[in-house]
């Protein structure tokens, strides 16, 4: 067996490198670039990157819209970084925290022509590292030798792209009995993805009949709502409401998917909350940060249900996208069970925005 890292392992390593502020070498055919996350960029690394050539910044089309930067490559923009600008300028382009105090960062020049594939790959990697979706790139020659000399991780776009668009296979690692308030007959199962990303959990209540639709909930992690009892969303009451209903019926399965903040991570969710304090709604805040409304991967939920032997569900949700994704990934939604709990004065606007912009059923 080879001791060389596989592409999945290299991607996991690249995510850690980027979070630590290390650059990674990206290749695509004859093109290669050094890419570093803007969020963890330091002056020392910026100087070292600049010594290699002209820098460009990869931002998403969503972020480019707020920055009024031209997008020539559909989902990404390649913004030229002027030599006169330093770390603060670069980070202000990536981080919307100060947008309202310093609205005009430009005019910005975007590159057009040639390929944006390396920039697109850089965005996909920083997103999967749960960082702000922005990266600085500089072209490099002789990528393999350069990476070896500097001890850097190399990611080939051709090898990485299919893995980044798929959802990683998950495997059960442990399960045990867990009596809970809502049901004494509880069992917690832990699932681990092959790509080294977060583990996900399944709470099984009673002994659900695998040949009939099971009462199911796909719950996305919300530290603020689930643990702290935040009034800004309805997650805490939904979590407890779903478990309570499963307890009353004597059977059910609740998946606790660690996709905090609709898949952007807790740090980015707090950035979104800070923008909400400035007056933007939940969807606008995600867009200003450079994310889509919802970055979650619901295929994970279907994969776990199937591993547990469930192929049909009575799904507790108000989100039509969850139903569509279940059906698309081979879990039949026999019934939609409404889950309306936890509305309060603080989250009324949030719930109304989800209904208006994300199609949630009221
Ligand atoms: N980015 C972002 N995420 C949020 C915000 N408020 C809550 N969340 C996250 O949204 C997710 C809530 O998802 P769910 O409880 O599955 O809700 P849903 O998609 O509305 O669907 P149902 O509850 O099934 O109707 C959790 O991951 C929360 O952390 C917000 O303002 N911004
Ligand atoms: Zn929440």
TrEMBL record:
<comment type="pathway">
    <text>Cofactor biosynthesis; riboflavin biosynthesis; 5-amino-6-(D-ribitylamino)uracil from GTP: step 1/4.</text>
</comment>
<feature type="binding site">
    <location>
        <position position="282"/>
    </location>
    <ligand>
        <name>GTP</name>
    </ligand>
</feature>
<keyword id="KW-0342">GTP-binding</keyword>
<dbReference type="InterPro" id="IPR036144">
    <property type="entry name" value="RibA-like_sf"/>
</dbReference>
<comment type="similarity">
    <text>Belongs to the GTP cyclohydrolase II family.</text>
</comment>
<keyword id="KW-0686">Riboflavin biosynthesis</keyword>
<dbReference type="InterPro" id="IPR032677">
    <property type="entry name" value="GTP_cyclohydro_II"/>
</dbReference>
<dbReference type="GO" id="GO:0008270">
    <property type="term" value="F:zinc ion binding"/>
</dbReference>
<dbReference type="GO" id="GO:0005525">
    <property type="term" value="F:GTP binding"/>
</dbReference>
<feature type="binding site">
    <location>
        <position position="238"/>
    </location>
    <ligand>
        <name>GTP</name>
    </ligand>
</feature>
<dbReference type="GO" id="GO:0005829">
    <property type="term" value="C:cytosol"/>
</dbReference>
<feature type="domain" description="GTP cyclohydrolase II">
    <location>
        <begin position="175"/>
        <end position="337"/>
    </location>
</feature>
<feature type="binding site">
    <location>
        <position position="322"/>
    </location>
    <ligand>
        <name>GTP</name>
    </ligand>
</feature>
<feature type="binding site">
    <location>
        <position position="222"/>
    </location>
    <ligand>
        <name>Zn(2+)</name>
    </ligand>
</feature>
<feature type="binding site">
    <location>
        <position position="233"/>
    </location>
    <ligand>
        <name>Zn(2+)</name>
    </ligand>
</feature>
<dbReference type="GO" id="GO:0009231">
    <property type="term" value="P:riboflavin biosynthetic process"/>
</dbReference>
<keyword id="KW-0479">Metal-binding</keyword>
<protein>
    <recommendedName>
        <fullName>GTP cyclohydrolase-2</fullName>
        <ecNumber>3.5.4.25</ecNumber>
    </recommendedName>
</protein>
<feature type="binding site">
    <location>
        <position position="235"/>
    </location>
    <ligand>
        <name>Zn(2+)</name>
    </ligand>
</feature>
<keyword id="KW-0378">Hydrolase</keyword>
<dbReference type="InterPro" id="IPR000926">
    <property type="entry name" value="RibA"/>
</dbReference>
<comment type="function">
    <text>Catalyzes the conversion of GTP to 2,5-diamino-6-ribosylamino-4(3H)-pyrimidinone 5'-phosphate (DARP), formate and pyrophosphate.</text>
</comment>
<keyword id="KW-0862">Zinc</keyword>
<feature type="binding site">
    <location>
        <position position="317"/>
    </location>
    <ligand>
        <name>GTP</name>
    </ligand>
</feature>
<feature type="active site" description="Nucleophile">
    <location>
        <position position="296"/>
    </location>
</feature>
<feature type="binding site">
    <location>
        <begin position="217"/>
        <end position="221"/>
    </location>
    <ligand>
        <name>GTP</name>
    </ligand>
</feature>
<feature type="binding site">
    <location>
        <begin position="260"/>
        <end position="262"/>
    </location>
    <ligand>
        <name>GTP</name>
    </ligand>
</feature>
<feature type="active site" description="Proton acceptor">
    <location>
        <position position="294"/>
    </location>
</feature>
<keyword id="KW-0547">Nucleotide-binding</keyword>
<dbReference type="Pfam" id="PF00925">
    <property type="entry name" value="GTP_cyclohydro2"/>
</dbReference>
<dbReference type="GO" id="GO:0003935">
    <property type="term" value="F:GTP cyclohydrolase II activity"/>
</dbReference>
């Amino acid at each position: 067996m080879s001791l060389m890292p596989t592409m999945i392992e290299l991607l996991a390593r690249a995510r850690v490198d980027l979070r630590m502020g290390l650059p990674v070498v990206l290749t695509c055919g004859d093109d290669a670039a050094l890419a570093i996350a803007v969020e963890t960029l330091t002056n020392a690394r910026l100087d070292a990157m600049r010594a290699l050539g002209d820098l460009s910044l990869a931002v998403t089309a969503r972020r480019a819209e707020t920055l009024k930067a031209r997008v020539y490559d559909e989902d990404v923009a390649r913004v030229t970084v002027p030599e006169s600008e330093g770390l603060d300028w670069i980070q202000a382009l990536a981080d919307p925290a100060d947008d309202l105090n310093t609205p005009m960062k430009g005019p910005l020049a975007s590159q057009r022509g040639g390929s944006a594939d390396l920039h697109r790959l850089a965005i996909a990697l920083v997103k999967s590292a749960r960082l702000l979706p922005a990266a600085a790139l500089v072209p490099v020659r002789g990528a393999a030798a350069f990476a070896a000399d500097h001890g850097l991780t190399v990611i080939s776009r051709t090898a990485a792209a299919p893995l980044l668009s798929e959802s990683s296979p998950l495997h059960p690692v442990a399960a045990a009995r867990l009596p809970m308030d809502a049901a004494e007959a509880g069992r917690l199962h832990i699932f681990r993805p092959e790509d080294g990303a977060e583990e996900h959990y399944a709470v099984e209540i009673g002994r659900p009949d695998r040949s009939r639709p099971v009462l199911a909930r796909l719950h996305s992690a919300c530290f603020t709502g689930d643990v702290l009892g935040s009034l800004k969303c309805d997650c805490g009451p939904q979590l407890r409401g779903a478990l309570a209903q499963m307890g009353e019926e004597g059977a059910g399965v609740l998946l606790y998917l660690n996709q905090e903040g609709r898949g952007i991570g807790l740090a980015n969710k707090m950035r979104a909350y800070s923008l909400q304090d400035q007056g933007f709604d939940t969807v606008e805040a995600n867009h200003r940060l450079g994310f889509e409304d919802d970055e979650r991967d619901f295929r994970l939920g279907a994969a776990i249900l199937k591993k547990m032997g469930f192929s049909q569900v009575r799904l507790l949700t108000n989100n039509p996208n969850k139903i569509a994704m279940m059906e698309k990934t081979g879990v039949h939604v026999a019934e939609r069970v409404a889950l309306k709990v936890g509305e309060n004065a603080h989250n009324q606007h949030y719930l109304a925005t989800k209904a208006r912009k994300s199609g949630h059923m009221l």
